[in-house]
Each structure stands twice: as C-alpha cells, then as structure tokens.
Amino acid sequence: MNKDFLCLSDWSLEALEKIFALTSDLKSKQKAGLQHHLLTGKTLGMLFEKSSTRTRVSFEAGMFQLGGHALFLASGNTQMGRGEPVKDTARCMARYVDGVMIRTYSQQVIEEFARYSSVPVINGLTDSYHPCQIMADLFTVSEHKKNYRELSYCWIGDGNNMANSWINAAGIFGFELRVATPVGYEPDADVCKRAADAGARILYTNDPREAARGAQVLNTDVWASMGQEEEQQEREKAFAGYQINMDLVNLADPDCVVMHCLPAHRDEEITDEVMESRHAIIYDEAENRLHVQKAIMATLMD
Ligand code: CP
Ligand code: NVA
Which CATH number does 133-285 carry? Predict the structure, then answer.
C-alpha cells in the first residue's frame, strides 16, 4: 500500500474502491451516531500555504470524529514560511504527528515533504492536483447514480488542478470524460499522456457544447485559481462562453448532475440558477469531503 495520498494516479482502482467502501461505512456510522474511533490518540498536522474553508474544516472535524486531533498550521506562522527547508520541517513534524495534510502551490514541495516524512502525507490541493476532492466527487456521483464508472462526465473551464485530477481519475476508473477548455488553458500535457497510456477515454475540445452534449455529470471550477488572482481580468475574457448555465445543462442528459468543488463565482463559471437547480449536487459533494477524507486518513494512519 502507498504511504502517501499525493496524486490519484499513484493509486490502483482496487485500493481507491476500498476507500469508497470504508467511506460508506464511516458515513453511515456517523449518521447513526455510532462511535468510529479508528484513530484514537493520533494527531494530524495540517499545513496551509493557501486559504481554505472546506478542506480545513473537514479534515479537522474528521480527525475529531475518528477519536484523534488535528493541528492547524498556517504557513505564515511556521518556520517553513520563513524559508526553513522542506526536508527539515518534514523530518521534525514526523516526530510529533501521525500524518500530515498539506495545501501548497507546487506539487514538488509536497513530494519532497513526503520523501522526508516517515508519516503519511495527504495532498489537500496543489497547483497540479486536488485528489481528495475528486474522491469526494466520485463518491457523491455514486450515491446519486447507478454505475458511476459507466457514466459520461464533462469538464468545462480551466485545465487546472481539478481538471488534472479528473483526468487522472478517468485513467483509473474508466469513465468517459470530455474536457472543454479555452485555447491556451488546456490541462497538463504529461497528465494527459499518462491517462492516455492508461487507456483513458478522454475527448479534448475547445467547445463546451460538444463536451456537455448528453453528459450525465457536468463539472466546473473557478476561472482563476488561488495564486492566479492577478490574471482574473484576462481570464474573464478568455473564459467567456465557458459557463455552466441552463442552456448548457439543457444539452446534457435530462437527469444530469452538476458539480463544483467550491468556492464558486456565481454567474461567472456557473450561473446562480444552475447552482440552485435540481441538478446541483454541490453541497453533498462538499459534505462528502468529510467522509472520504476520514476513510483516507483511517487507511493511511491506522
Ligand atoms: N473545495 C475546496 O477545497 O474548498 P476549500 O478551498 O474551501 O478548502
Ligand atoms: N482550482 C481551485 C480549486 C479550489 C478548491 C484553486 O486551486 O483555487
């Protein structure tokens, strides 16, 4: 088994499906008020170099529900934020805690951290990937639809960390994925190549309508991710037309579901109308961060 959870494509289908099975079990125990203290006495260190609502709260609440404790570390208040080498922070933290969750910019940082950490490291978002989010998303689809691996998914918008993780997932789970991005904002070429080598069925296009037509799951994300704030205006021009609105939803399957990892910019990448419609499963998706991440932590840290 892998020590860390850094990128979906490090994991096998079988291992990820085991995490989903544990997620179901933990979710039903939590809903029934049954104790599920799989990590009694354990501590998760959470290192944040970017803002967060859902990731921080779901990991922290999740550790508490598992009988453990979580420690929030904002990078500005750590020595790593003042330039202490990643490998020194990693080796010291591993002497205090039983697992580390990191939200940072570069995937290389998290990989270096994991190399020097003797305890599991979990990716809570980098510029390259958001694997915990895609696990929560797929689990949510599986609750709403039969045969989640046989559906047609589409991604509308930026070829960012979320898109890359969806592409990783298409290579593992085998579902059809159509990715519509503006020219110049395509997903990472190496990620696409790896998925193709894994036999993924992915269509890349610049036409959101082609991607959405008949799709059962529609997905999008902000046009400017964290760290790209100064590109907002330029991106608003490039991404005009890459919006999930009712016209696009009406091209998709009549019972399609619409997802967004949040935070959303209503009436930019997705309309308020779609977010409030019967198609949106966005808050179930947010809730499932909690359940899926508890299963990931229990798998790695137990
Ligand atoms: N979706 C997600 O990761 O949300 P936060 O940025 O609020 O953690
Ligand atoms: N792509 C977004 C996701 C936020 C959860 C970002 O990186 O800011």
Answer: 3.40.50.1370
